[in-house]
Amino acid sequence: MDSIELKNEIKTYGNTFFAIVFLSITFRNLYTDFNISLPVTFSNFLMELLILIPMIPYIIANKSNFKERFGFNKIRIKTLFLCFILVIDIWPIIACCNLISQFFVPNVVVRSQEAFSKANPIILFISMTIFGPFVEELCFRGFFFNGYKKITSLIKAACLSSLMFALIHMNINQFCYAFVIGIFLALAKYYSKSIYSSFFMHFVINLPTVLFMVKSKNTENESVSVFEMNLNIKLMLLIIFLIISVFSVLISIPIFNGIKKSEERGDEEKNTRLQNEKVINQSCIAGIILSFFYMIFCDLILPRL
Length: 305
Hints:
By secondary structure, the protein is an all-alpha fold. It has 13 helices and no strands. Helix 2 runs parallel beside helix 8 (121-148). The chain is globular. The termini are far apart.
């Protein structure tokens, strides 16, 4: 990949991310401004489609090597089992990040409990555990992570694609734990050489939320958000989860090694990054800033107006 091709790739990634952010924010604002009342599952489907649409030109242009480009490679049952173990292992880390966010903002899932509880359970399941994870993995692990890891280091590619993944949730609560989840999904995708591993993990991570929503449909008791708890209790919980999270990170290392050995991963292709070449362009930076501003305004400023 020469300098011109590299710059075009970077431009494509940045422009695509900005388009996703712009469409997502525009839809949310129209949804609010015109006081449109849509079923929450239908709204979820639309939001996922807005993530998919900006990638369609790239998918069409690369349809000849779609499978290789996005990582649709076969995966072993043993690898899926290790991915399941990895999800269980990182739950304390996810809970810790979720808890940290609730020092400042409420839990989005608990806050949306009533709306989700009215949804059809089957449609809710398809929306949140199949369609949503598939689109998001196709985008953030298949498109962005796969692309960036060819032109920069593994860590930078994982962090940048995970930052995009977290920002597109458009709220501080989910941003905090989605960023961490994204890193683990990216590493699972890398070591297994298959997008099926990250999709499976994403499915398992989202499944408890769907079960929680379905259960809440049959009960009159509302869940208590950690956001509403006493500060001392939150600090105590945070210390506990931080300690457990350290061990979770350490345990994840042999699990990743197991995934790597399970798929008999050979040497990854060398990245083609040119010296001193920036991997993000102005469009990407604009998308990141716009997302941060939108989250801060909606979650911290608007509620106080």
